[in-house]
Amino acid sequence: MIADEMSRHQKRTEWHAARCLYFGGQMMKQNAELFLNRRQKEPIEVYRERIASAYYENYIGSIVDWYVSAVFRREPVIFTQGASDEAKRFLSRFLDNCDRRGTTLTEFFRTVVRDAMLFGNAHLTLDFPRYSQEPKTRVEAEQMGVDAAYLVNCAPEQVCTWRVDEVGTPEFVRIEVSREQEEGAGPGTGKRLVFEYTKSTLRIQERVIDDSGAASEQTLAECGHCLSHRNTVPVIRLELPHGLWMMERAGHVQLEHFNKANALSWALSMGLFATPVVYSDREWTQIAGDSYFIQLSPEDRFGWTEPEGKVYRIAAENLERLKSEIFRVCHLGAHAGLGGATVSQSGLSKQRDFQITQEVLRALGDWVKKGLKRVIEAALHAWGEDVLVIVAGMDQFDIGEFSAELTDAEKLLAMKIGSRTLEKQIHKKLALQFLGDMRQEVKDAIVSEIENG
User: Fold this and answer.
1) Those residues with Cβ within 8 angstroms of residue 137's Cβ, 6 or more apart along the chain or in another chain
2) Residue 3 has pLDDT above 70, yes or no
3) Least C-beta-crowded within 10 Å: which of 103, 311, 358, 362?
4) Dist CA 178 CA 422 (whole Å)
5) Which helix (H) or strand (E) holds 223?
6) CB 304 within 8 A of CB 277
7) Which residues on adjacent β-strands are paired with residue 121?
8) Interval 43-59: pLDDT, tens
9) What are the structural domain ranges in the chain?
10) Hey, CA dihedral for 430, 434, 111, 364, is it positive or negative?
């Protein structure tokens, strides 16, 4: 039990560090003491002054944001086969508002991808609104607004227990959500809502921690959840491959850059204040400093000390190397901007430089598509219908690539292969990619017209 608590504490520390490194700014400033190493026998006053003047060059945050933006350069193409009109309406509402806050599923997954790059995985809870009176029909449920599935993106700290069966399927999940702390309450006190999921039941508890640290739990509800009829836990865990987990790859290098950059900054600042040196054989008791003067004997000499600058040059070169390493381990070597020079490149040369980055983006796009498919299928299963869900696209990451894809499609259609199904699939893919920002109802109408055309 003690080992589990220590492991849990270590994970919380890692999650907090990942957030600080990603957000930077004031968050990193307030937590600089956690990351800025104290030198051996360094006076505490000097260390505090270094903390107060600490600054942070945030590269990993920009890298994560770039990947999220690039992978969603074009929205995924989502359509179904064999779905009824009711299922299409349900799916359309879910895709346009997946969290009861007006967020589209694509926008919601931007946050999911970001969290996965920070923490290595993401946990999504699927649920439906609670109702006091059970609706008799789906039409009545739609009118009451209780058939609108929604997702909750859980922070890693909230998922306290994750237990799987012998084949790796989740069988018990415990999620704790902190409620607002009452005014005047002591540290460590407060209320928490605890959600315990099994394959068939959901138990909601309120956990109260008083000033003495004693905890008490009260069961608020115990019932079936939206996937009880499927004997499935309605919590979806999306694990990111280690090769795409950018914080794991570059976090330690970013911390090394943070310490080296602040050490160089501190040395430069100290170098601006030259130290007086007096060469004398007699005992020196005079005070030297601003608004003071000193009296020297004819044999005494006075001078100033200042660093030669070699170590500064070495430190600056090391910082550039660390910066390059951060981008390199994140598969963005061409983005490091070494040397500060802008080199004119041909389209083919640029394509070769970004080939590795393109492959990583395609792998990330495949991960997103699989996650979207799992979420959408889970929502349809919870609603009560099995539908074949197809998620395509997310394999083109340059603005100019759609024209090339359109040209390829025209050449393919000009071959007159004789397959009407092939023509429909090509037309649907092109139309949905071009109209990626349209509402899902419009996309469904276009797909229906192409199918029936």
Assistant:
1) none
2) no
3) 311
4) 52
5) strand 215-223
6) yes
7) 239
8) 999 999 999 999 999 99
9) 121-239
10) positive
- Nearest to residue 160, comparing CAs of 192, 133, 135, 186? 192
| Ramachandran quadrant class, 213 (left: phi over 0; alpha: psi -120 to 50; beta: rest) | left
CA distance 20 to 11: 14
Q: Give the chain's end-to-end CA distance (angstroms, integer).
A: 64
Which tokens sit at 47?
């260390």
Starting at the edge strand found earlier in the chain, the sheet holding 121-127 runs 150-154, 121-127, 235-239
* Residue 238 CA to its chain's centroid (Å): 12
Q: Around Cβ 13, how many Cβ atoms within 10 Å? A: 11
* Residue 244: strand pairing partners: none
Rounded Cα distance between 334 and 322, Å, is 15
d(CA 74, CA 147): 29
The pair of structure tokens assigned to 326 is 């951060």
- With beta carbons less than 8 A apart as the criterion, state whether 15 and 156 touch: yes
**Three-class DSSP category at 389:** strand
**Confidence at 292, pLDDT banded by 50, 70, 90:** low
Query: Both tokens of residue 339?
Result: 């040397």
Question: How far is residue 47's CA from residue 38's CA, in Å, rounded to a whole number?
Answer: 7
Helix (H, G, I), strand (E, B) or coil at 180: coil
DSSP state of 185: P
- Give whole-number Cα distances, 351 to 219, 346, 401, in Å: 59, 9, 12
Could you give the angle at the alpha carbon of 154 between the alpha carbons of 148 and 157, nearest 5°? 160
Q: Which range among 29-33, 129-133, 139-143 has the greatest average pLDDT?
A: 29-33
Indicate the DSSP class of residue 172.
E
Cα–Cα distance list, 242 to 204, 254, 270 (Å): 34, 18, 42
Write out the two tokens for 309: 């600058």
The pTM for the full model equals 0.79
CA distances 326 to 182, 257, 304, 318, 329, Å, are 43, 9, 39, 12, 6
Contact 271, 55 (CB under 8 A): no
